[in-house]
Amino acid sequence: MAVSLINPPGLPEIPIYKQISIATGSKLVHVAGQVAWDGGDLATQVEQSYLNVATALAGAGATFADVVKLTMHVVDWKPELMPQVLDGIARASAKLGVAIEAPASLFGIVALDVPEHLVEVEATAVLD
């Protein structure tokens, strides 16, 4: 595998992702921000965005096991929305049959491309 995910000593262990990814491959894959075009609540849009990332990764011959970094942009973010985000990630993980643990960042933003989009997820992966 080209990617190892770890929590080094001295940094907190976050239940939904690892703090560090170490990549040794030679092919870098960047997945554009994915959204849910069918709408839905935040959890449903998070789930669909992650499923779309998986589809994009597959197009490059990659899976979530190859992901070294995830970035999520959430419209009108507030901490009270975290349970919905976690629910969406858990549902996507269950459907895909994988643990999604790559280092991740979440940014609160004002808006996305259309008013119906509540979240966008982008990914970077490394392949051998």
From TrEMBL:
Q: Which Pfam families match?
A: Ribonuc_L-PSP
Q: Which InterPro entries match?
A: RutC-like_sf, YjgF/YER057c/UK114
Name of the molecule in the record: RidA family protein
